[in-house]
Amino acid sequence: MIFSNNLIHILGHYTSENKDSLTNLLNTQYSDNNKFFKSFFQLKNLVLSLASRNTIETEPRNFSHQDWYIWLIGEVYQCNAIGFDAKNSNCLDHQDFGHFLIDKICSPRNWKALQEIDGQFICVFYSRSEEALYIVNDRFGGIPLYYSVASNQFFFSTSLNSIATLPNFNYQPDEEALKESINFGGFRLGDRTGVAGIKILPWASVLEFKLESPPRLIRYWNPQDTQRQNLSNNLEDLVEEAYHLWQLAIVRRVVDLKIPGQTLSGGLDSRAILAEVHERFPQWTGISFGVPNCDDVRYAFQASQATAIRYICHPMYYGFSEYWFEKRLGYVWESDGMVDFSNLLHWETLPLQEMLFDGHISGFIGDVIGGGSWDEVKDVKSFLNRLPFYDTNLGIDSAKAKEGVDSILKNTTDRKIKYVFYEAKVSQQTNLLFQAPYNRIKVRKPFVDYQLFDFFESLSDEVRKLLYPTMLKSKYPSLYQHIPNQKTGMPILTPSWKLNIERARRLIYRKTQPSLKKLGFNCEPRARLFLDDYKAVNIGDTKHKIRELLLSNDSIVKEVLDQERLEKFISAWLDFGNAPTNAIGAMISFEVFHQEIKKRRLNY
């Protein structure tokens, strides 16, 4: 069984100063959602506020003769060092696991051993004898952790807004973060957040804090350090090994669930999950979302028909409702303002998921791990292109963008650049898309199963790109033989000459479609994308709401950016769709989040 914990949030304050005034405040910081159980813990210089789905889980677990305290947020699926694997029926005892963490990892400072614990988690360790605090996350930083150090005060939390609204935190919006997010596809570089002085913990990290000492960050794993395995050169053998590891990854993440489900797209990865689970769970539910008749919806529907699952299609923008803008704005606070407004479209189905699932099995970065989507990132230019970098005249210019990327790629070899990009995208964008879902239901990500990841990373780029689609097509023919891949509009492993013919056919159709329509033929353009932001902003008074939000007299965005350029940029997007959507989305999220912080700080 999975080693799991319903503790979902922690807010901590560690300081040598008097904390009594914080006691009641810290106990009420997390969320407006009354269904979470909240508790409070104080031990000498450490004050904690916790939130859980279960009253039991907020209690601390005490080890090693009353010296160590441990709080675990998240789940563990495998730990070979103590013979635990969720695929088996044996349960991992909390006491045994806690003593392993203390005796084998924390006390001897054997941080490298953390890389063997497969899961998504945040662990907080506190030693009373040492007056030392250690915060640890998993390899891929699956649960965001934010922290701030100032004047011998250490704040940390799984929620950025919990720290930013504390009255004794010196809150300021990070103007450079806004500028970066405008140019970098809606997110920031490195460990930056939208609040000055608050950082996001990098993946595979140990953060050590002792009073009267600066914090120390220790990285215990890097993906480029993955040990190359002695694998067969035979493709059939590799397919069998990949298939076996994929099955194990799925089993480890569904073994304790009763009614799991997924969001089902027109791509390969969510379909790979469906292929493996639909017979195991007859009540499996797949939810797709998109504009009517888009490729994603059509291909997802075909997959649902092939597997006879329960299928639900959520119309994007709530069916182009006139209230879609307000509904999506409601998720900005829950995202800590870290997800640009346009990408919050992924959260429209959250109420459905919460109602129908007890666990969401996600295809999180499957195309990267199995398909090699980011393999082409080998230098600064390809790094910027893939982020992507938009050379607007609002945020930072291309020279400063290049300088920023240069600084994080310093002393990095060509082969390792891809992994730096991994972390930039996963920590600052992809992981954050699961922040709100994780707070509502269990979210499991089989593609980051450690054994599966290590296997694929042991392969050359060329072999991996061939192996993954070969496995899918050979093991799951009903889902991959004829149903197209959304990226190409053709089934996987279609010969390049056929793909070229298909591209030519589509081009001809697009060119002739307006003329054919004038002649009376009923032909609509292919809806390749699952979204249509330009149509959505033309509903009702949405344009007016966006202008009012970003250009009002009290707008933070307008105060930071050049007003004349900002007005032209917004008009170019609203009136002609001639500006990056993510840049507008970044400004909206930044504005809404910081206005809400200001309002709440006034209330405190």
Keywords:
40% helix; globular; 604 residues; Glutamine Phosphoribosylpyrophosphate, subunit 1, domain 1; 3 domains; six-stranded antiparallel sheet; eight-stranded antiparallel sheet; alpha+beta
Topology:
Blueprint: E1 3-4, E2 7-15, H1 23-26, E3 37-43, E4 46-52, E5 61-63, E6 68-79, E7 84-85, H2 94-106, E8 117-127, E9 132-137, E10 146-150, E11 153-157, H3 160-164, H4 175-183, E12 199-200, E13 205-210, E14 216-219, H5 235-254, E15 260-263, H6 269-277, E16 285-290, H7 295-307, E17 310-315, H8 316-320, H9 324-329, H10 350-356, E18 359-361, H11 366-369, H12 380-386, H13 398-408, H14 414-430, H15 435-440, E19 442-444, H16 450-457, H17 461-475, H18 477-480, H19 496-518, H20 533-537, H21 542-551, H22 556-560, H23 563-576, H24 581-603
Parallel strand pairs: 15-16, 15-18, 16-17, 18-19
Antiparallel strand pairs: 1-6, 2-4, 2-11, 3-4, 5-6, 6-7, 6-8, 8-9, 9-13, 10-11, 10-12, 13-14
Helix pairs in contact: 4-24, 5-16, 5-17, 12-13
Description:
- With 604 residues, the chain is of the alpha+beta class.
- The chain has three domains: 3-221, 4-Layer Sandwich (Glutamine Phosphoribosylpyrophosphate, subunit 1, domain 1), CATH 3.60.20.10; 227-373 and 415-486, HUPs (Rossmann fold, 3-Layer(aba) Sandwich), CATH 3.40.50; 533-603, no CATH class.
- The chain is 40% helix and 17% strand.
- It contains 24 helices and 19 strands.
- Strands 1, 5, 6, 7, 8, 9, 13 and 14 form an eight-stranded antiparallel sheet that branches. It has a six-stranded antiparallel sheet with strand order 3-4-2-11-10-12.
- A hairpin with a 4-residue loop joins strand 6 (68-79) and strand 7 (84-85).
- Helix 12 packs across helix 13.
- The chain is globular and about 85 Å long.
- The two termini are 43 Å apart.
- 44% of the residues are buried.
- The model has no long low-confidence stretch (mean pLDDT 87).
